[in-house]
Specification:
The protein has 217 residues and is α/β, with parallel strands linked by helices. It has two domains: 141 residues, Response regulator (Rossmann fold), CATH 3.40.50; 64 residues, Arc Repressor Mutant, subunit A. It has ten helices and eight strands. The strands form two sheets. Strands 2-1-3-4-5-6 form a six-stranded parallel sheet, with helices on both faces. A hairpin with a 2-residue loop joins strand 7 and strand 8. This is Response regulator transcription factor.
Length: 217
Amino acid sequence: MRDMKTITVAVADDHPVVLESLDRLLQRHPPFRVMHTCRSGTELIAALTQSPVDIAVVDYSMSRGERPLDGLPLLRKLRDIAPRTRCVMFTAHSNPSVLAAALKLGVAAIVSKDDPLAEIVGACRRVGTARACYLSPTARAAVERGEAGTLGGHPALTARELEVVRLFASGHTLQDIAKQLGRSVSTVSTQKYTAMRKLQADSNTHLIRYAYENGLI
């Protein structure tokens, strides 16, 4: 039997138990070889800059630390510094707009944390041997719900507005968000205001409740 070509993998998740589980899972399934296990987006970028891999399995939300690098900014950075690395996004998010934005950034697969862990192996096999995009069942259902371009009867938020809402609802100040996203505080404040207007949210509490109810955090 012909030996399978090794597929190198990096795994990034800020929860040690999840990180170890993903590492062990993939190491048990040839032809995968996990080269990097990273607990932050910054650590992942540093690892791939030094030693690129074929596939990166990346948790969408890694918001620990003062200036975390996660979400759409991390996906953009990955696309820029490791264009040949195919990204498998592993996420608890079910917001169709978030998933659609990730796909536009070139994510090769999205696996929901509501699906069996074996979906990670299936996604890595698919993107490691073909150029087609892969969505786990729950992720696919979420994307299909968002095809009409609205969510909960409200106009769809832009990717930039979604990131501001997600980070604000996660407890970050506008100043923190501006630093993390590389925008001015004024721009972030305007994007938050625009999102609230679109969602008809009349208070920060309403905005945070929207984020929880729609899978942003």
